């Protein structure tokens, strides 16, 4: 954010104030603003702000991306380090991808440094979204949520040209698939755009079984960054979940909204949310 004197009399001085939001950042950050003037020798001046953001717990990455071919074995590592002068203890409280990948929580230096190793086991093709939630004993940062995504292409098998030809000649009607008890139009919510621009996304949730569906919020990790509403379209049957960015809170973030259902066939619905914003021209000047 920037405040500045729009007009400066000849020979006088003006003031430009730049404010940088540091929430959600850690370590060294660098932000720049371009000042446009009517000075023929200095029409554009770039101001740079640098800061070292100190956090109680350092997390090397809160976003883990798996991508590649479905037959690849892929590993990812996240480092967690205490930055305060007191012991740090970690406890895993929730992991939503138990059937898709595995993780190990390793102690590097007791009470100080830890390492989480995620490993994807090869399958023919697998796309997934989920998270690992860790509880800490630091009241300054009681939880750490690591958002995980997997995007894979079909595995390639040598000499499968004949198989591909057989697939082309196969009947067009596929086997009957088991229907999900609850239809969710999208579990992955992307809020991408310009800073200070209000952006909304809607996800539909429809019951597919012949019994009423009820939803309650179990967890929401982005309360200070965006808002959501759950609208009943048809009582016990159809719902809409609307996500909207909050004015002036446009920066990069990852989080979740978890809904609890009364369907034992599908007891929870987790929306993985991403916010990615670029500088608008008004903010840059």
Describe what this molecule looks like in 3D.
- The protein is globular.
- It has a four-stranded antiparallel beta sheet with strand order 5-7-10-9, with no helix packed on it. It has a four-stranded mixed beta sheet with strand order 6-12-11-8, with no helix packed on it. Strands 13-15-18-17 form a four-stranded antiparallel beta sheet, with no helix packed on it.
- A hairpin with a 3-residue loop joins strand 17 and strand 18.
- 4% of the residues lie in helices and 52% in strands.
- The chain has 285 residues and is mainly beta.
Q: Give a short account of the largest sheet.
A: 4 strands, antiparallel
Task: Give helix and strand order, one letter per element, not per position.
Answer: EEEEEEEEEEEEHEEEEEEEEH
The end-to-end span amounts to 10 Å
The beta-strand count equals: 20
Structural class: mainly beta
Taking all Cα atoms into account, the compactness measure Rg is 24 Å
Total count of helical runs of at least 4 residues: 2
**Mean residue pLDDT:** 82
Sum up the overall morphology in one term: globular
Beta fraction of the residues? over 45%
Helix content: under 10%
Show unreliable segments.
Answer: none
Strand order of the largest sheet: 5-7-10-9
């Amino acid at each position: 954010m920037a405040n500045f004197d729009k007009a400066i009399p000849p020979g006088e001085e003006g003031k430009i104030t730049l404010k940088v939001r540091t929430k959600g950042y850690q370590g060294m950050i660098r932000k720049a603003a371009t000042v446009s003037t009517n000075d023929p020798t200095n029409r554009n001046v770039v101001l740079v702000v640098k800061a070292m953001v100190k956090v109680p717990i350092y997390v090397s990455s809160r976003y883990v991306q798996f991508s590649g071919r479905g037959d690849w074995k892929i590993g990812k590592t996240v480092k967690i380090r205490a930055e305060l002068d007191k012991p740090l203890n970690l406890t895993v409280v929730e992991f939503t991808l138990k059937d898709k990948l595995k993780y190990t929580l390793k102690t590097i230096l007791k009470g100080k440094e830890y390492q989480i190793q995620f490993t994807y086991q090869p399958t023919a093709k697998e796309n997934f979204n989920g998270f690992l939630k860790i509880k800490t004993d630091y009241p300054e940062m009681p939880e750490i949520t690591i958002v995980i995504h997997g995007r894979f292409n079909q595995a390639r098998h040598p000499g499968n040209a004949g198989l591909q030809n057989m697939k082309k000649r196969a009947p067009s009607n596929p086997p009957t698939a088991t229907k999900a008890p609850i239809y969710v139009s999208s579990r992955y919510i992307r809020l991408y755009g310009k800073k200070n621009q209000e952006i909304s996304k809607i996800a539909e949730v429809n019951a597919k079984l012949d019994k009423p569906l009820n939803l309650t919020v179990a967890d929401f990790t982005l309360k200070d960054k965006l808002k959501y509403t759950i609208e009943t379209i048809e009582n016990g049957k159809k719902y809409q979940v609307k996500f909207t960015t909050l004015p002036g809170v446009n920066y990069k973030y990852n989080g979740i909204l978890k809904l609890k259902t009364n369907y034992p066939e599908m007891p929870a619905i987790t929306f993985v949310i991403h916010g990615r914003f670029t500088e608008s021209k008004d903010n840059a000047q």
